[in-house]
Each structure stands twice: as C-alpha cells, then as structure tokens.
Amino acid sequence: MTDCEEGEGGPNSQGDGHPKESSPFINSSAATDAEKSQQYDGKNMALFEEEMDTSPMVSSLLSSLANYSNLPTGSKEHEEAENNEEGARPSKKPVKAPQLGTLMGVYLPCIQNIFGVILFLRMTWMVGIGGVFGSFIIVFMCCSTTMLTAISMSAIATNGVVPAGGSYYMISRSLGPEFGGAVGICFYLGTTFAGAMYILGCIEILLIYIIPQAAIFKIEGLEGPDAELALLNNMRVYGTLVLSLMALVVFVGVKYVNKLALVFLACVILSILAVYAGVIKTAVDPPVFPVCLLGNRTLLSKVYDVCAKVIEIDNETVTTKLWSSFCDSDSLNATCDDYFANNNVTEIQGIPGVTSGILAKNLFGNYLEKGVIIEQRGLASDADPDSPSPTSNRYVLADITSFFTLLVGIYFPSVTGIMAGSNRSGDLRDAQKSIPIGTIAAITTTSTVYMSCVVLFGACIEGVVLRDKFGEGVNGNLVIGTLAWPSPWVIVFGSFFSTCGAGLQSLTGAPRLLQAISRDGIIPFLRVFGHGKANGEPTWALLLTASICEIGIIIASLDAVAPILSMFFLMCYMFVNLACALQTLLRTPNWRPRFKFYHWALSFLGMSLCLSLMFICSWYYAIVAMGIATCIYKYIEFCGAEKEWGDGIRGISLSAARFALMRLEEGPPHTKNWRPQILVLVSVDAEQNVEQPRLISLTNQLKAGKGLTIVGTSVQGTFLDNYTEAQRADQSLRKLMETEKVKGFSQVVISSNLRDGTSHLIQIGGLGGLKHNTVMVSWPRNWKQPEYHQQFRNFIETVRETTVASLALLVPKNIAAYPSNGERFTEGHIDVWWIVHDGGMLMLLPFLLRQHKVWRKCKMRIFTVAQMDDNSIQMKKDLITFLYHLRIDAAVEVVEMHDGDISAYTYEKTLVMEQRSQILKQMHLTKNEMEREIQSITDSSRGSIRRKNTPGMRSQHSAEEGASLAEKPEDESVAVSNPKQVQLIHNKNASTPTSPTSPTSPAGPAGAAATWTDNKGADKGTALLSPGPEPGKDLFNMKPEWENLNQVDVRRMHTAMRLNEVITKKSKEAKLVLLNMPGPPKNRNNKTNPMDNAVYRDYPFFADIQVLIFLGFGCLLAFFRLYGFGGMVFNFLTATFAIQWAILVQGYFQFSHEGKIHLGVINLINAEFACAVVLISFGAVLGKTSPLQLLIMALLEVPVFAVTEWAVLKYLKINDAGGSILIHLFACYFGLGVTFVLYRPRLNEGHAKENTSYQSDILSVMGTLFLWVFWPSFNSALTLKGDDQHRAILHTFIGLSASTLTAFALSAMLNKNGKLTMADVQNVTLAGGVTVGASVDMMISPAASYALGMMGCTACMLGYKYLSPFLARRFRIQDQCGIHNLHGLTGLISCAAGICAILLASEEVYGPSLYEIFTHRAPVEGDPKLQQLQMLIPGLQPGLGRSAKEQALFQVAAVFSTIGASALGGVLTGFVLKLPYFASPSDDLCFDDQLFFEVPPDYDSPLKLSDISTTEDSAA
C-alpha cells in the first residue's frame, strides 16, 4: 500500500489538493490528523474511517443485532406517537420483559375467544335442524378453514413480531396499505358486530332462561309476529342498556376486564365439562326429561300440566289443562279441535341417553319453514289437510326458515377468535414458538369439542327437543343445560358470564384495532380516532365502536347478526391466507418464517374455503362485504397516504410487469392494439428547467392518460461531475408531468454532447416490449442563425435516427402557440393534408386529439392533392367512403395542384441549397467561420432576388417565403399565420417512402430542408423532365448558374413551394395543420454502394449457370451421331421456354407480393434451376420425342416441380443447398415416369441410329467440360454468402475431382480391352457434383467430399453397366441418357450423406453458425437462448427449435415425398404426351434429325461408312 501511495498519491499528485503523505487518513485535512490519529490509535480500522458515519462497526452493533426484533414496518410509528403524547409526563416506568408462555399467552386466550355463545345457544338447535351428518360437515368445514388460516397466520406471525392490531398488521404489511386498510376495517367491523352478537346472546339467556319476568314487552298471550316483535323489542332495550354499561366499564377500567378474563374462561371450561359429565351420566342413569306430543306434534309446556287429555281421580274421569286448551269447555262432551280429537297424547323421554340408539334418527336433517310445527318423525298422526291451520300458542313452532347455508352463517362465529394469540405477540416470552403451537392446539381442542358435541348431542337428545330452539317444550329450559350435570344452572350461568366476558373483550379489542388503523394514517377521515386519553386508551374509537355495535343491537336477532360478522371474519381470514400464499410464491428474501409447516397450496385452499363459505352463508351479505372492502380499497388508493411496506402486492406488480413485458416480446402488436407510445424529447436550460413545456401539454392531449409516455432529456457532461444536475432535471420533468397530468416516466441521460444523449434516449428508451414507437421533438428555433446551427444539425440527425429505428416522428412547429390543457377551442378546424399514405397514423392523430377537452369542439377537415392525370371527383368519393369505413367524421376536399411554371424564386432557393452544401464540403473552415460563411451566402442570395424582381413579383415571393413551412423561423411563421394556428409536421418513417436529397447537399440545413418535401411531387417532377429548356427559363431570363442545377432538386423545390402556397391558402384559419412528410435518405451521403446491389453479388453465378444450361447440357446431349441438331437445338428451345414459364410459376408461389411478381437475379437463378430439372428429364426421352412433346413436357413439369418445391420448403423445411432432393431426384424420377409410359418395345434391343461418332463424342465431352467447370457455381449459387458458399465451392470441386479420377480408373478396369470408354468420361466424371449436393454447405471435411465423389462415381459406373439394361428389360424403363445413374443413384447417396451430416452436426463443431446453416434448428421465438445467439449473430431469425434427429426425419420425408410426387407427375405427363396430337416420331425415325431439320446431304455419311466397315469385317 505504501508503494501505491508513493506512486499515485505522492507530493506531485493533484488529486483533491491535499498532500496525502502527511496524513494517514484518506481525504483528511492536516488540522484533524492528530485527533483522528489519536482516535484510531492502536486500531486497525483507519481504512474505513470515512464510512463510520453511515456504516458503523460490526463490533458496536452486535449487541443490538442480538436483541433485534423484526417489527413490521409501521409498528414503531405507534410507539413514537405514544412517546410524543407522553412527552409531558415525567418519566415512563421501566417496561418489564414479556413473561407469558404458550399456555397463558396463546392457548387459553384462543380457547376463550373461540368458545362462545353459539355453542350454548344454537349448537343443539343446529344439530336438530341439520342432522348429525349435516352439522358435522358444517363444523368440519369451518374448523378446517380456521386450521388452514392458523397455519398461514403462524407463518406470517413467525416472520416478525406482530404488534397490537393482529391480522390487520399481517395483511397490511403483506398485501399493502390498500388491502390492509380494507381488510382491517372489515376485521374491525366483524369484531364490533361480534360484540353485538355476544350482548344479544347475553340478553337472550337473561330474558328467556334466567329472569323471563324482567321482560318490558310482555310476550304472554301474544302469538306469531306479535310475540316475535315483543321479544325483539326486549332485546333492543336491554341490549342497549348492557352495551352502554359495558362501554362504560371499558372506558373506566380496561385492566379489570383483562383481570376478569380468567374468570370468564373458567366459566366456559366448567360449562363444557358439565356437558361432558352429563353425557356420561346419561349412559348410566338417563335423566327424567319428559316431552309431551299430540300425535307427532310437540306441545308447549305451558299448555298442559299433565301430559294427558283426561285423568282418573277417585274413579272419576276429569279433564286436564290440556283438554281446556283444545276444547271449548271442561266437559267431556265439549267440542274439541279435530286434530286433538283424532290423535293421542304421548309422552316421550327428551334425553333418552347416549346408549339409546337415538343417533340413527338424528343422523339426517329436518329443515323447517318459519311457523311450521316441530314434529316427531316416526309417530302416527291423523291430520285433515283441509282443516284450518292450528293456533300457534299450543305447539312448538319454528321461529325462522332454516336451510343449510343459514346454519353455516350462524355457526361460523363460534370458530372465530384464532387471532387472540397473535394479537398478544408482544407479551410472549417466545412468540416464534408460542403462536403456532398455542393457536393450532387451541383450534384442535375446540374443533374436537365441537365435533364431539355434534355427535353426542345427536346421540343423547330427542330430535324434537334439539329442534326446540328456546326450550318451549321443556318448560323453557336451555336445552344444553338439561343435559349438563350436576345442574342446568351451571350451563345457564356459565354461558351468561361467558357471553358477558366475550362482549367486553370485543368492546376492548375493536377500538384498539381501529386506533391502530387510524395511527397508520392510510385512511385520512379516520385519523381522529387515533387519539385517545392520556394513558393511550382509544376514547373516540370506543365511541364509534359502541355506535356501530348499536346497529347490531337494533337488528336484535342473534341469527341475523351472526352471518354479518361471519362475512367480515371470513374476508379477513381469506386475505391472511392470500398473504401467506403470495409471500411464499414470490419468495421474497425477507420471507423466512420459523414455522416451517406451511405451503402455498394449503393457503390457497384456505382462501378458497373462506370465499366459498362467504357465499354459502349469504351471497348478498358477501357482496355487501366485498363492496365495502372495495370502496375502502379505492378510497385508500386515491386519497390515502402512500406507504411503502415491502408488501406482496408490489411484488405481484413486479412479477406481473415482468410477465407482461415478456409476453410483449413475443411479437409486434396487432394493428387493432397499436397506439402511439411516445418518447418526448425536451431540452432544459441552465437551471434544469424544461424549455418547451407545451410539448408535455400536447402529449397529454394526444395520450389522454393512456399508453406509454417517456419524457426524456440529456445533460451535457460526465456522470461523475453532473449527476446532481441530472437529478434536478429529472425532478423538473416529474414536476412538469405531474402538473400537466401526464402519466408516464421521466428519463435523463448524461452524455458528453447533447447529440449523443438524444441518440441514447432513442435507443434505450422503454424496456423490453414496452418501448416507444413514436418520437416527438420540437422544430428547432431560429435554426438559420449561426448560434443555432448545431441545434438544427442535431435535429436532422434525430430525424435520421428515428427513420433507421422505424419510429414515427412528430415534429410540432410553433410549439409555444399550442394551447395548454386549461384552454378550450369552442370552434375551429383541424386540417389534415393527406399527401402520402402512412398506414393510418395521420388519421389517428386528430382522432386522439379530439378525445381531449381542448380539441373536442374542433371539426376535422381532410385535404388531399390531385395531380393533372387524377380524377378529383372520384378521389373525393373514394376518400369519403374510406373515412366512412374508418368511422371518422370529417369534411373532405380535393385540391387540384397543376404542374405550373417553375419560378425564379424556386431556382434561387435551389441554388442557395447547393451552394451551401458545396462550400461546407470543399472548405475546411472552423465552426465560427463556417457559420458566418453560410449566413453571408444566404444574405447575398436573397439580395440578388430582391434586385432582380419587380415590386409585384417581390411581394409574391415574400408571401411564399413567409408561408414556407420548412424555411422561416418560428417568429416569422407566427406573424404570417393566425395567432392560434399551430402546425404539426408528422413523419411516419415506418411506412413512408424516402425521398433522397441532392447528392451534393447531404448535411447542411438547406439540404435537410429538401428532405421535408412531398415525395409524389418529387417523383412527378422527375418524370416530367425533358432534354429541352424548361418553360420557366425563358420567362425569368435565367442566370448562367441555374443551367448547372440538378433538375430533380429544382422540381422538388418547386413542389415544396407550391404545397406551401396551397396549404397556406386553404388552412389559414385552421387551429391545427397536420402534414405528412417523407423520411430522409437512408444513407447520409446519398450514395449507393454498387456492391450492395444484387446484380454485383449474384449475376456472376447467374452467368455461370447460363453457360451450364445452354452450353453444358446442349453439347452433352449431342452425343448421337445423327441427332446432334436435336440434342443442342431442342435443348436451346426447351430451356428458353422452361425459364420463362418457371419465372411465372415460381413467382406465383415464392415471389408474389400484393398481386405482383417481383423480379430479380435470384428469380432468374431459381428459374434456371427449374429449367435444369426439365433438361435432366429430357435426357430420359432424348431422340424419341417431338419438339412439341418436349414443350408440353416442360409446360407440365415446371408447375409440378414448383408446387413440390413450395410444399417441401414451406412445410417440411429441409436443407438442400445443392438440390440433390428437389432437382436431381425430382428430375430423375419424373423423367423415368415419362419414359415408362412412352415405352417403345422395338427399341429395347437397340436402334441402328442409336450410336455415336468421333465428332459427336468430342462435342459431348465439351459439354461435360462445361458442366464440370461450372458445377461449383450451380451448387453454391443460393447458399449463404461467406463461409457456407466457400465450403460449397470447395466440396463440389473436391467431389468432382474424385469422381473424375475414379471414373478413368474404373472405365479402364471394367473394359475388356482395358481402354477408356467415352460414355464413362462424358457422364460418370460428373457424379461427384451430384453426390456432395445435399451436404455441400455443411462441415463434412474434404476427405468426406472425396469419399462421396468416389462412391457416386462407382454407383454411376455400375448403374450404366448393369442397372440400365436391367430396368429396360424388366421394368419397361428405357433411360436413354442414363439419368437414373447420374442423378438418381447419386442423388440418393447425397441425401443419405446429408442426413448423416445433419445428425452429426453440433455446436461443438459448427459453433453458433450451426443455426445459420440449419435455420430450422434455431431456438423458437421467446427462447432466452435465441437472444444470446442473436448477440453473437446479429440478424439471426427464430427457428422451429428442431433437434438433429427431427431435422433428419424431415429430410427423409422430403426424399420420399419428392420421389412420389415426381414419379406420379411423370406418369401423368407421359399419358398426356402419348396422345396422338403431338407428332411423336415413329420408331424408325427416332434419333434422326432429318424428321425435324433441313440437314446437309452428307449428314449420315459417317453412318454409311460405318455400315461398309462392318460388312467388310463380317466378310473377313
């Protein structure tokens, strides 16, 4: 380190100006050296001295880290608030360490909160109505829900300490403030209504079972609705009194409530134990508990004293009280109720005992309508269906209509209260251990009790007693109390005190929950409830809680209130499960619960159960609860405080955003989904304030808050030095976007110059598929002034870059005159000048603008320009129809702009442009000198115009100059036009054809101005040029320098001036003018590289193939001594016809776009390949067909070949660079199919003229040489340029060389005399070119090419010697030229070699270029590997993701399908050629030119000479 300091920070180092050698501290001054040296004396941490303020030493943090408690974000805010409130108090007492364990801190509080009023007041009734089976299902569903919720809650609670607020904190810190606030309020409302339910249960026990006489509204003597109303009114009065008393107790002494909690818990436990004791007692000694039934109807206990109609007293029959209830007198002869008279009175045992077998009767449910008499199933009953309904004061009636879902809603509150342990986590000695164990144990205990009670109640108690909700048939006793031992009063008083305690607990917990929500500040209107008394008690929250609780008291029905709180608790539990599932699936780094027995699937199951139970209980209550939660969610979202708690919803947003971005990467958006995603380029001043704020206003008007908006700017400098300025600029952009209500993103780039910064923004703006497709930049101000010259050059480069990136470009001119978002246009027009088509962008802009309130009242007008040859009337009709289909309401006008004389002003403007560019290119001036020179040229040119023209002409030119949209500065343009008129120059680069500027003016401002002209006008001006003088030249006494101007540029300038004139005239009063301008030239120098033209790249191959087709095949086919004319000339004729026909047929299948066939050198090469196919097939029928048959054969073969080629390449997608499959195999088997049909039996043993001559063999060998020399071009013409083409040429040459040498050797070996045979030299030497064809561009090594050449040569040689005669004798295939040997056998070998090469191809051998050669093996679109490969090989296209084996199978399929298609096509073509209309030659005239040509007299002399020689030899 000392060496480094001496080398880099010594005395001569500039650094920060401090001499480093005098100080042991980095960046320290000498004044503090002594102090810091003393501070770190003896310590080795001086290296980190600067970081001590922000990153303290670990040694000093270990103690605090060891005592770290992972409080959720926000809990400390409560502590700070309490400290602030208690700031005036002298001192706080030391806080004791939490001492509660699992039993006292979690288990028993959960037991107390879970066991409640429903168990004592409604459980027996639920079993009676729903049956043991149905009730057990209800209990199991509810207990499973709470168990799954407890598992999720345990995971959340053990991931950090949960302070007061319990589930609210779990949900809000896991799902965010919106969900947390909404569910917190629901939990609060549930807890509040639970208090109301407990109070109603307390009053019900008091008024029905303890002191019925205390009722204010007497029920005695009332029936039906009147009795029900009296009961409800009693509940309301007493409930309000009890609520007030409890609220007062909570307000005065909360600590007493907490101390009494154990007493209330003891009451609950004793009551449950009493029930179990009573059940056990029934097995041994069932209690006497009679129930009186009339027929099968249960009687009220108050209507009888003895369960009999009459009794015997002293041998005298005496009527009973029951008789009096049903008869009109006590006399035995009295008139009685028909049902009473027809049915007997029966007394049954209400609690027969657990061993009685009553369980079977109670197994299934018995749901009742309201007012229905409770009847005993299984007893006989004689009831007249026509009799009037009985009076309700004699029988026990159902007080409500019961059904399964109602039971679920009433029962579920009995399983709530599982959050009691987590609410006390701050008081636990080890919360991470106690909460899961205690909560799950409590739920297990209570679930066991509930399920056992369902079974035991059904097994001990008679069904009519179970269904008697209020015990009216059993002397008004609590049904569960009659089962208890030793006394029913144990249950009565135990349940009374239990409900009182539960009500007090609810009124204690709910205000604190509301206070916790209020102190978080996420719901503004609840903040007042965050305050309380000096000791922190939530006074205002208690008052609100009591008020809401009163609503439940007013409802007054326990059965109606229970489903309400069920909704709120279920919603709370649902979101607890959701929170756990999301945290688990998102795998956030902070999610590390100590409780490990959780899973996201369990949480989702619990969430699903909660949601299902909500709708099972009551679908309308569920919708109301969700509506309340949704309203609170939206309120917090729009008005609440912004909190960043690291919640899961933000994690979901990030995951969803990533998923959506990846989906957007799959492909470009459909036209229906396209909308402008705008990148707004603005500039900032020295204070980092935006210079064009109206650009943001226009963006807001265009976007209407939809889509992507990026506002970007660049700061000049370096990142290290100018980061602060960039931050200020970013804040300025954000503030302006907020002011203009633009939803989007800001982006600031620091670059060494503004030009590069703008380029970087255009390149890197957006993310993935969410990128801008439109760039908006303001027209540069005062661009002709020297000091603004660089600004305009930057603008031109921006235009070019957007063109290269295929982005739309919006250029607002006079941006300062654009309306702000607060302005309104009450009238006016938006004019669209539709000069060139841009895919619809120009029509979309006014539609988007008119969606905004600023432009809503403006009308839309569309102008289009008609030329001299256009039908303006028809154009207007077509445009109206087009707008109708686009559903755009606009006025249409067609402007006729005739091609008038070119003015002197136009010539002078063009001259100025060219002079500027020439001077800038030829003079090497400094920047300041260059700008002064430009200004002097401009001034002198304008002065010459003024001197030359008359006053009238001068005024005209001044108007044109002022109206020019491309030349005048902004202040002049505004002065000429309407003050409210604004212009938006629009350029859709992606679809607008470019219009090149003058070749001599590529870079200057004037040259760029020529870019912004009309493309149609420029093209038309070019077409109208003539060699003679222009008409305008004579009119203006042309200056000599005008003669040298580029007339194309003159016409462009003329069109621009005329357009400016017309637009200014027609749109003078418009509020906005929209123009479409062509893009800039693609190359900045306006020069085309000749080698980029396809002619220079592909024409040499085309020329080589031409030689191969016409000379190679022509000479090769002239080997018959009397058929030389036919071989060469018919080859010439057939080839010419086939090429022209193939251009059309292949063009239709492969090169057709928008109804037109596009021609090029590549088309001609493909057509010549098709021609080669015909010529190869021609070899099979050489000498045996007429010229007409050959043309018909070509006419039919080319379409069959084109269809086969198209199908194989489009659907099978094979590799066949040398055409072994699609050319050689197809041609071979097509030709064999034709010759099979055209079989001539007489030629099977040979023909007198089927022989060669010395001259014909020499001519044929010349054809072989042509084919041999140019075969590498044939094989490599359409391979990839570069290495692939290089390999194709080398492999073909090596293969041909190998086959040539092998052919000479085998020819001599197989000849009896050991001599060479010319037929072998002419054909077999070419076999190697075919054999390497399928693998010619693959990495098969030179040795493999040589081996393939030898194999092909051997197969071809043996085929000529043995296979061809065999095919002629056995299969009627007379292969005249042996195409099956040279093209068929070798083609099959080539296909096999290609398949092997494909199977062996791998990235280890080929590298990334594997996917260029085998394009269909490239990864599919969206595969990450494709992106990696595209970085290595720019331009690599997505493939099909095939494996080597799959590609090889497709190759095999292509071989068989090609052979099948070609053979079938050949056979059908043969049948066509066999028709008698095509002048087929006879057998005797085959192989003879005399039939079709004028031949010289001695053309057959070689044959005669040969005959004489043969005769002499035979004689000898």
Strand order of the largest sheet: 8-7-6-9-10-14-15-11-12-13
Number of helices: 54
Biggest beta-sheet profile: 10 strands, mixed
- Count every beta strand, where a strand is a DSSP E run of 2 or more residues: 17
What does this structure look like?
With 1516 residues, this protein is mainly alpha-helical. Helices cover 57% and strands 6% of the residues. The protein contains 54 helices and 17 strands. The strands form four sheets. Strands 8-7-6-9-10-14-15-11-12-13 form a ten-stranded mixed beta sheet, with helices on both faces. A three-stranded antiparallel beta sheet has the order 2-1-5, with no helix packed on it. Helix 14 (404-411) packs across helix 21, helix 31 (904-922) crosses helix 38 (1047-1066) and helix 45 (1283-1310) crosses helix 48.
Short description:
With 1516 residues, this protein is mostly helical. It has 54 helices and 17 strands. Helix 8 (167-175) packs across helix 21, helix 41 packs across helix 42 (1187-1212) and helix 41 packs parallel to helix 43.
Characteristics of this structure?
54 helices, disordered C terminus, 3-stranded antiparallel beta sheet
What is the element layout, followed by pairings?
Layout: H1 2-8, H2 33-39, H3 58-66, H4 75-85, H5 102-114, H6 117-121, H7 123-157, H8 167-175, H9 177-210, H10 224-252, H11 254-284, E1 290-294, E2 297-298, E3 310-313, E4 316-319, H12 321-326, H13 338-342, E5 345-349, H14 404-411, H15 420-423, H16 431-460, H17 463-466, H18 479-483, H19 488-520, H20 539-555, H21 558-586, H22 600-617, H23 619-639, H24 648-664, E6 678-681, H25 693-703, E7 709-716, H26 719-739, E8 745-751, H27 754-764, E9 774-777, H28 789-804, E10 808-813, E11 829-833, H29 841-850, E12 859-866, H30 872-886, E13 891-896, H31 904-922, H32 927-948, H33 951-963, H34 970-976, E14 982-988, H35 1005-1011, H36 1015-1023, H37 1031-1035, H38 1047-1066, E15 1072-1076, H39 1094-1116, H40 1124-1150, E16 1152-1153, E17 1156-1157, H41 1161-1178, H42 1187-1212, H43 1220-1237, H44 1254-1276, H45 1283-1310, H46 1318-1323, H47 1327-1331, H48 1341-1370, H49 1379-1400, H50 1403-1406, H51 1410-1413, H52 1424-1432, H53 1444-1473, H54 1501-1515
Parallel strand pairs: 6-7, 6-9, 7-8, 9-10, 11-12, 11-15, 12-13, 14-15
Antiparallel strand pairs: 1-2, 1-5, 3-4, 10-14, 16-17
